[in-house]
Structure formats: structure tokens, C-alpha cells
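Subject: for your reference before the review

Hello V.,

The reviewers asked for a structural picture of the protein, and I figured it would be easier to keep everything in one thread rather than splitting it across files. Below is the amino acid sequence we used in the manuscript, unchanged from the supplementary table.
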Amino acid sequence: MKHNIMESLKSLSNFFKAIENDYRISITHIGLYAALLQFRYDKGFANPVQAYRYEIMKIAKITGPVTYHKCIRELHEYGYIQYLPKKNRKQRSTIYFPL
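And here is what came back from the structure prediction:
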């Protein structure tokens, strides 16, 4: 358990270092990334995690699906995560975290 907490903190710290000079990252991206880490922690620190959009939106306090999709897609495009969405709403998307 202690190891997972330390890994979570390290992941968040590494993210903050990586975005320090990245003007593209907004508070919404930061909140979404933190929510993804929380979701990952709750799933036993799995990598990758599989999640429905609404599960992550609830943790991140994002109410609009357009905002969620824009930010998660951008986190993927900028290289902070690897996001593999599913076309079928009844299937979870897959999110990989960098090692």
C-alpha cells in the first residue's frame, strides 16, 4: 500500500515537472490527470486502466463530455498518457500511463 502511494505521488510530481513549461496545459488537464491517477490508485495501481468516461468525469468534477474528450485527447496527443477510446459506449476505454 505504501509503495502505491509513493508511486502515485511520484507520478503526479513527474507530471508537474513535465508540464512546468507546457503552455498548452490548463487547470482542466491537471484536474483530469489527477483524477486518472486517483482512478488508477483505486484499481490497485494498474497500468493500463480501463474506465468509462463517466467514472473519470465524476472524480475530475468535469460536467461536459465535450470538455472531457477534448482534454483527454490532448493529454494523449501531448504524450502524457496513451488513450485508446472505444467506439462502443458499453466498453471501457483503455488508458496507459508512462513508466
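For the response letter, the relevant points are probably these. The chain has a mean pLDDT of 92. The chain is about 55% helix and 10% strand.

Happy to draft the paragraph if you're swamped.

O.
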